[in-house]
Design a protein that fits this description.
- This protein is of the alpha/beta class.
- The protein has one domain: TIM Barrel.
- Strand 5, helix 7 and strand 6 form a beta-alpha-beta unit.
- The longest helix has 18 residues.
- The model has no long low-confidence stretch (mean pLDDT 94).
């Protein structure tokens, strides 16, 4: 296949990027970040999650944030939900999209959500049904697709099986997450090729962390496989809890610049995107990428 003419960027900074920040980020700062991301041309923005505030206190204000968000006429705001209770809270808050989170590693699944992979997928069935009934798009995440901090390498076939299950549940798209940034161009390509053999490649998104400094190379290695969606976080927000001081998600501004060099359109204003990165960098009081 040839390279895509256009790539859709899914901005995950406000949720995946901020959720592990040790100091509470004020709602007003999150709002300012989303406003700047919108101004840069980003239309698919994950703004928070409806998970237990006890486990993820940084996301406790998601409903309050959503009540203050400006209209997103060209796209929609997405949130992560762990179960039906979370979905109902997201719907009440006016979420335009919800996402569920599975793992390709049994060890990671049990450590992260105290449940097997199969059990987690069973939990999502009522969420998927409720989303269908409400007409709310459902997105799926698969973590540890290129390696697990406990199990090590993960078989591409295992990733493909989980991705297929998420599509069967009703997810319109599955985002493949290199949670610990262990991937290389070869392993990333092998994984995406295996998944593309069981679901249409246009329903695959790349969610690569830059722990090993190869996120951009890994993205490039997969673009001719029919994939045209990339998750990224402004300023490289995030970090890996299993690698101290390691970079987090691939920086949105780096991904956009790299795609531009390849002649691939994103519709993102690089200058305004840089403004968003400077804003959140200043608010956090530290470099973000």
């Amino acid at each position: 296949m040839t390279l895509p003419a256009r790539v859709r960027i899914v901005e995950v900074g406000p949720r995946d990027g901020l959720q592990n920040e040790p100091v509470t980020v004020p709602t007003a700062v999150k709002l300012g970040l989303v406003e700047r991301l919108l101004a840069a041309g980003l239309t698919a923005i994950e703004v928070g999650s409806f998970v237990s505030a006890r486990w993820v206190p940084q996301m406790a204000d998601t409903a309050a944030l959503m009540a203050r968000l400006p209209p997103n006429p060209a796209g929609r705001y997405a949130v992560l939900v762990p179960n039906l209770k979370g979905f109902e809270a997201a719907r009440a808050a006016g979420a335009g999209e919800v996402a569920v989170f599975a793992s390709a590693s049994e060890a990671f699944s049990r450590a992260n959500i105290n449940c097997s992979i199969a059990g987690s997928l069973e939990r999502f069935a009522p969420v998927a049904q409720a989303a269908r009934t409400a007409g709310i798009p459902l997105r799926g995440y698969v973590s540890c697709v290129l390696g697990c901090p406990t199990e090590g390498p993960v078989a591409p076939e295992t990733v493909a099986q989980v991705a297929r299950r998420l599509i069967d549940l009703g997810c319109y798209e599955v985002s493949l997450g290199d949670t610990i940034g262990a991937g290389t161009p070869d392993t990333a390509r092998a994984c995406v090729a295996a998944v593309a053999a069981v679901i249409p490649p246009e329903r695959i998104a790349l969610h690569f962390h830059d722990t090993g400094g190869l996120a951009l190379a890994n993205i490039r290695a997969c673009l001719d496989l029919g994939v045209s969606v990339v998750d990224a976080a402004v300023g490289g927000l995030g970090g890996c809890p299993y690698a101290k001081d390691a970079p987090g998600n691939v920086a949105t501004e780096a991904a956009v610049a790299d795609l531009d060099r390849l002649g691939i359109a994103t519709g993102i204003d690089s200058g305004r995107l840089a403004d968003a990165a400077r804003f959140i960098k200043g608010a956090l009081g530290r470099p973000t990428a």
